[in-house]
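User: tokens in, sequence out, please.
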């Protein structure tokens, strides 16, 4: 009997069992389509809506993003703590119910951000701050459980990479549809301000339906038992454990770089198309070809991670990204070259985006191995805390830079303003992609071999604990 138990443990050491069905992967993918239908509208178009439709100063509008996203970052941590310490976990699971219940409030708040009443400038600012901060709060309640759920769906490293790739495919499809379809809907209506509202209502409804589809087609295979009671001291220990998790800290820092670069690029490209190459149709072409290229990297990621460590594939993506953007700064002076070189950059970005969620899931296991504390929600929310900070930068920096270089909405721009837009579009992201390569190489400690050893030790401890518990019961 002991030999059989050891054999079973050894099998687990080599690789955790596969638990995902195809519909689970598709369901999780569609969930992130919904996330992006609900989220990307603000990240892509809200700054331009504030500056060009509401007449807000670009620096003031950028500050709305800064304040709201810093608020969101703290909300992520709060939601993560709440999720980890829930005591009323029902048959729907620990994470899935949030997709069901948060979808409609999130959609309504998104619409509120693009339906500004005819207030004074002060009234518009108050509405913008309150609506966007409330939206971010509800998005945290929806998204933190969604991202944390990977650890409950599978413990198999390869399946986590695949699930992360499916999620990124969904994210990119949602983003692609947002860039292809949103502005054509806006400009098709005689009043652009109304066009923004109509477009966002369409995407909000689609986002809710996607979230509900994900809820119906995902499953929490590994459900943690609810904690009967938690103390402030236990919460403090959970927070302390985060700072002993070197892989998590490293991934969070590089995400501050890469995600701010990615989101800033998305926010600026509509300005680049309108004022630098004077072709607004290029925005839709970017959505189709450039973001479509991310699907290529998402497709390739599982194959590459079978041969190389996730860390190596991540750095490779950053290198491709940097090359595309450096060339873009010098050569993207027309629609063809802009789409071509931005496609190269997004191909590289796709590798980093596809791997982020798999890396964070690995960090959960590392944290449990290192400290004995398992906290999926807190780990994920710590990671998204940095993503929200990156989104704050992505909204704030363009607003400030556009103000400094003398941007004037709906007018011919000066040479200084055009150079500022060009530098925001390409140099910011290229520089941070290169910095990410250095940080990952120097600081990220997890290889596939080490991860499997860590999982083996965790499984062995749990198996030993189960054997001891069974022996104690039999003895009694």
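Assistant: Sequence out:
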């Amino acid at each position: 009997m002991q030999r059989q138990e050891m054999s079973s443990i050894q099998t687990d050491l080599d690789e955790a069992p596969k638990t995902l069905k195809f519909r689970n992967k598709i369901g999780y993918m569609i969930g992130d389509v919904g996330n992006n239908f609900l989220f990307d509208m603000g990240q892509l178009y809200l700054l331009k809506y504030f500056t060009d439709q509401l007449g807000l100063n670009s620096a003031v509008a950028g500050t709305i993003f800064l304040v709201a996203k810093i608020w969101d970052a703290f909300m992520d941590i709060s939601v993560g703590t709440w999720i980890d310490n829930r005591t009323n976990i029902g048959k729907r699971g620990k994470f899935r119910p949030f997709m069901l219940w948060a979808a409609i409030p999130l959609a309504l708040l998104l619409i509120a951000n693009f339906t500004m009443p005819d207030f004074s400038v002060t009234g518009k600012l108050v509405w913008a701050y309150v609506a966007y901060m409330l939206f971010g709060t509800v998005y945290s309640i929806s998204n933190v459980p969604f991202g944390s759920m990977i650890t409950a769906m599978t413990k198999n490293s390869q399946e986590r990479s695949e699930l992360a790739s499916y999620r990124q495919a969904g994210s990119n499809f949602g983003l692609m549809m947002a860039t292809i379809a949103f502005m054509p809907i806006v400009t098709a209506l005689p009043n652009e301000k109304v066009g923004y509202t109509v477009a966002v209502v369409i995407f909000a409804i689609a986002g809710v339906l996607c979230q509900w589809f994900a809820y119906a087609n995902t499953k929490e295979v590994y459900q943690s038992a609810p904690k009967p009671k938690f103390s402030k001291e236990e919460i403090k220990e959970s927070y302390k454990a985060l700072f002993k998790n070197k892989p998590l800290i490293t991934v969070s820092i590089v995400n501050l770089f890469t995600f701010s670069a990615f989101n800033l690029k998305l926010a600026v490209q509509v300005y680049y198309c309108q004022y630098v190459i004077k072709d607004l149709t290029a925005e839709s072409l970017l959505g189709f070809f450039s973001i479509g290229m991310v699907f290529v990297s998402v497709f390739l990621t599982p194959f590459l991670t079978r041969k190389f460590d996730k860390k190596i594939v991540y750095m490779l993506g950053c290198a491709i990204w940097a090359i595309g953007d450096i060339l873009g700064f010098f050569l993207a002076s027309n629609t063809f070259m802009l789409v071509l070189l931005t496609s190269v950059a997004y191909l590289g970005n796709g590798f980093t985006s596809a791997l982020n969620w798999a890396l964070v899931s690995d960090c959960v296991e590392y944290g449990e191995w290192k400290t004995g504390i398992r906290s999926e929600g807190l780990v994920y929310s710590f990671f998204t805390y940095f993503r929200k900070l990156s989104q704050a930068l992505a909204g704030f920096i363009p607003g400030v830079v556009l103000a400094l270089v003398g941007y004037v909405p709906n007018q011919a721009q000066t040479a200084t303003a055009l150079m500022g837009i060009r530098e925001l579009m390409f140099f910011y992201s290229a520089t941070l992609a290169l910095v990410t390569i250095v940080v990952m190489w120097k600081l990220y400690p997890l290889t596939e071999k080490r991860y499997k050893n860590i999982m083996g030790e965790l499984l062995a401890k749990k198996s030993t604990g189960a054997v001891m518990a069974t022996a104690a019961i039999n003895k009694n």
